[in-house]
Amino acid sequence: MSAKTLYEKILEAHTVRELDDDGQLLLYIDRSILNEYTSPQAFSGLRDSQRQVRHPQTILLNVDHVNPTRPQRDALMTDSGGQLQVDYFRKNAADFGIELFDVLDPRQGIEHVVAHEQGLIMPGMVIAAGDSHTTTYGAFGALGFGIGTSEIEHLLATQTLVYQRLKTLRVNVSGELPYACSAKDIILALLEQISASGATGYAIEFTGETIGALSMEGRMTLCNMAVEAGARGALIAPDEKVYDYIRGKPQMPDGELWQLALRDWETLRSDPDAQFDKSLEIDCSDLMPKVSWGISPDQTCSIGGCVPDPAGEANLIKRQAIEKALRYMGLTPGTPLQHIQITHAFIGSCTNGRIEDLRAAAAVVAGRKIASHVRGIIVPGSSQVRRQAEQEGLAQIFADAGFEWRQSGCSMCLAMNEDVLAPGDRCASGTNRNFPGRQGAGARTHLMSPAMVAAAAVAGHLVDVRNFLSVGQ
Ligand SMILES: CC(C)[C@H](C(=O)O)[C@@H](O)C(=O)O
Ligand code: SF4
User: Where are the annotated coiled coils located (predicted)?
Assistant: First the structure.
């Protein structure tokens, strides 16, 4: 029997049928989580063709993209388009018999936070959902990937998808993560190294001692943003940390079933001599906190650096990309990144809206105030994270520092609700995408870790978080 990668093992266990000799196959999907934004036409398609949902119990509908995150939560939308989407979502849940986490449900939150909180994600699963950051579940040793609306319809009707096998890329991460650096800095460093298309056509497997040492939250941040490098799948082999994290979650099996599952999950690792199509190494020993300066997550550098000078770039395409980014971002070549003033600070999203992220940010702002010209907003990744942060006293720390403490949702990660920046606003953001208009037309986004956002909020400009933490804290 030939040696296999983890990706190949998961794929093999879910292949219903090979469709051709070029890696196209019919893939069985274990679960799907759908949002109100990308699912409506899929349900309309089912209605038009009078089809039912094949396995409604494997699907979860969760409102996250358009709902308001005002502190006093009500179901009212200011946006009539959003209201229509949520109304239709509710109708679809009722008519097709699918569970719905509605806006006021205590389990509601961003789908990629809610899914694992509820114990819906198990090692070895294949999860396809109408959202590109479904790669997050790789942190659990599950293959997750985003699908388009017509694929959602196919999945709902058949529980399968026509899937093109990916090539495999092993990213081995070594070295102790330096003080104040986090998984966010690792993934931004990877993006800087391989570019936003560096993993297109690949499924990544992250390996190495640094990955083993990362918390589950850190692993999720890493796999979440793997899609920003083009990877339609990111995996980390499950270990004790995963089992401890998922054990006892609401929908997780227990007793004998759990024991059986554990035995199976222990086979979920790449064989020692398995062949990857490509491999690369990242050494974290001298990693520094990263910030993005451009309009793509790979336009990133260490906080000690300066805004790049397009004149220094020999490659014409890259030079033009830098010029375009600097125009949009309103930045001058050679400016030290730490001189860039901000107007907003945002912590949240499926990348960095989990409890550990909020703890890291609170450690920076505790006893401090955010700069008077900065509007700071914290949107917990889920209602559960919100409650936990309140119990731990983090919410109070943020409120005392001058942050707005919100309800959960995607919010200012992509500005589909009322949390929208104005043209020219500049936001230090713990999110994953800095595309033009992402947080509002003409608004500028700098991606960084939540601790770095917290430090920027206090300083009023981009800053090295290491200036704000005493060693050993
Ligand atoms: C709205 C949705 C399709 C989109 C995605 O797929 O990722 C969004 O969540 C995002 O982060 O840009
Ligand atoms: S939090 Fe942001 S990245 Fe995550 S699903 Fe919502 S919009 Fe997409």
Answer: none
Q: Decide: 434 in ligand 2 pocket, CB within 6 A.
A: no
Instruction: Give the integer Cα–Cα distance in Å for 291 and 301.
Output: 6
Question: Is 284 marked as binding a ligand?
Answer: no
349 lines ligand 2 (CB under 6 A): yes
Q: Which residue range forms the structural domain that includes residue 317?
A: 292-467
User: Is the CB of residue 298 less than 8 Å from the CB of residue 325?
Assistant: no
Question: Strand, helix or coil at 358?
Answer: helix
Compute, in angstroms, the gap from residue 409 CA to the centroid of ligand 2. Answer: 8
Residues 358 and 402 in one domain: yes
pLDDT tier for residue 468 given thresholds of 50, 70 and 90: confident
* Whole-complex ipTM: 0.99
Domain boundary among 254, 278, 302: 278
Q: Tell me, rounded to whole angstroms, the distance of Cα 389 from its chain centroid.
A: 20
Query: Does ligand 2 have an atom closer than 6 angstroms to the CB of 377?
Result: no
The whole-number average pLDDT for the span 149-158 is 98
Same domain, 427 and 310: yes
Q: Which residue has the CA at smallest separation from atom 4 of ligand 2?
A: 350
Q: Find the CATH number of the domain harbouring 119.
A: 3.30.499.10
Q: Smallest Cα–Cα separation from 294: which of 432, 185, 444? A: 444
List all residues whose CB is within 6 A of at least one atom of ligand 1. 37-38, 65, 131-133, 146, 414, 433
Cross-strand partners of 206: 171
Q: For the packed helices 450-459 and 355-365, what is the interaxial angle rounded to 10 degrees?
A: 30
Q: Are 414 and 420 in contact (CB under 8 A)?
A: no
Answer whether 58's CB lies under 8 Å from 111's CB.
no
- Could you tell me the pTM of the whole model? 0.97
Ligand nearest the Cα of residue 431 is 2
Known binding residue 410? Answer is yes
